[in-house]
């Protein structure tokens, strides 16, 4: 399998991802790794409606994703991975996958009192996640903050160092 990119986005698969990021990377499969959506048939069905025609979509739990990566289930696909948190992305890498690029898109505003940095108008990085991002970057993965492809990509490394 060839992972073409990964994205961290609190909304996971939505219109901007489907209409702007999918054409940017041209994957054969979108892989949403999220326990909540994987285990809720209603949320899963709603998310499937955002899938572009002709594209495979997996909405799977963290455990299933890691097992599938280890088993080589997607070896014949190009995959765009979408998750809500950086630890999921690091876990994918630790399963032996190479992720050439990680884009931090939209994240939720953290609760008041939470140690976090606002790295763009629409994205925050929790202080507790900085070591995770650093570990991802240490693998050679290029990390940026960019809501839509037309926005200027900002180096995430520079914003969290």
Biggest sheet layout: 7 strands, mixed
Give the radius of gyration: 15 Å
Strand arrangement, major sheet: 3-2-4-1-5-8-9
Summing up helix and strand content along with how strands pair, one would put the structural category as alpha/beta
| Spatial gap, N to C terminus | 32 Å
CATH architecture: 3-Layer(aba) Sandwich
Order of helices and strands: EHEHHEHEHEEEHEEH
- Mean pLDDT, rounded to whole units? 96
DSSP, total strands? 9
The number of domains: 1
- The stretches of 5 or more residues where confidence is low (pLDDT under 50) are none
Q: So, the CATH homologous superfamily?
A: Phosphotransferase system, sorbose subfamily IIB component
Strand content: 25-35%
- Report the CATH topology name: Fructose Permease
Q: Helix coverage percent of residues?
A: 25-40%
Shape: globular
Counted by DSSP, the helix tally is 7
CATH class, anyone?
A: Alpha Beta
Pfam families: PTSIIB_sorb (PF03830)
Protein name: PTS sugar transporter subunit IIB
Main location: cytoplasm
GO molecular function: kinase activity; protein-N(PI)-phosphohistidine-sugar phosphotransferase activity
Write the layout of secondary structure elements.
Layout: E1 2-8, H1 15-25, E2 29-33, H2 35-38, H3 41-48, E3 56-60, H4 62-71, E4 78-83, H5 86-94, E5 101-104, E6 116-120, E7 123-126, H6 130-138, E8 142-145, E9 154-155, H7 156-160
Parallel strand pairs: 1-4, 1-5, 2-3, 2-4, 5-8
Antiparallel strand pairs: 6-7, 8-9
Helix pairs in contact: 5-6
């Amino acid at each position: 399998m060839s992972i073409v990119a990964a994205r961290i986005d609190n909304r996971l698969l939505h219109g901007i991802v489907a209409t702007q990021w999918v054409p940017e990377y041209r994957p054969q499969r979108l892989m949403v790794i999220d326990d909540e959506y994987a285990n809720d048939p209603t949320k899963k069905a709603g998310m499937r409606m955002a899938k572009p025609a002709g594209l495979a979509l997996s909405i799977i739990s963290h455990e299933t994703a890691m097992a599938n990566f280890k088993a080589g289930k997607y070896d014949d696909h190009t995959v765009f991975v979408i998750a809500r948190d950086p630890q999921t992305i690091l876990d994918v890498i630790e399963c032996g996958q190479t992720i050439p690029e990680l884009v931090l898109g939209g994240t939720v505003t953290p609760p008041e009192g939470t140690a976090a940095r606002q790295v763009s108008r629409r994205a925050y990085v929790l202080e507790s996640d900085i070591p995770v991002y650093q570990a991802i970057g240490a693998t050679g993965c290029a990390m940026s903050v960019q809501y839509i492809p037309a926005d200027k990509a900002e180096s995430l490394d520079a914003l969290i160092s």
